[in-house]
Design brief:
Length: 133
């Protein structure tokens, strides 16, 4: 794209310079404003693109800061498929672990007002706990 813009600007400048340097040709062509406008639009487009890129990067960093790094892993003594009753029973133990250590099948306790530390669908929610299928 840079070569096309440069070629167009140089061509318009040269074509405009020929009648200026040789008035006997009687050309009435003056394209001195086209290269300026072309370069101005290209520079404007690049600056708007850079501004949008910086804004998108800032927004992505803000979203990444919302990710929870710690999760409450619920460990129960019963074997098999955990349900809401077994996850919230009295012998269940909650252990704080890094979110990266959570695997499919683990139960996670999410208290009111906390962010969900893992990706799940709404059908997987239990009352204050999340079970990954």
């Amino acid at each position: 794209m840079n070569s096309l813009v440069g070629f167009g600007s140089i061509a318009a400048f040269i074509i405009s310079s020929i009648p200026l340097l040789n008035p006997s040709l009687a050309w009435d062509a003056s394209f001195f404003d086209e290269p300026v406008m072309l370069l101005g639009f290209v520079l404007l487009g690049r600056s708007l693109e850079e501004k949008a890129r910086i804004q998108a990067s800032s927004d992505m960093n803000e979203l990444l800061s919302l990710i929870s790094t710690q999760s409450r892993l619920v460990i129960t003594s019963t074997e098999g498929s955990p349900s809401t009753d077994t996850v919230l029973c009295s012998d269940a133990i909650c252990v704080e672990v890094p979110t990266d250590d959570i695997r499919v099948g683990d139960s996670v306790l999410v208290l009111p007002g906390e962010t969900i530390p893992i990706d799940v669908s709404l059908s997987d929610f239990y009352w204050y706990s999340v079970y990954l299928k």
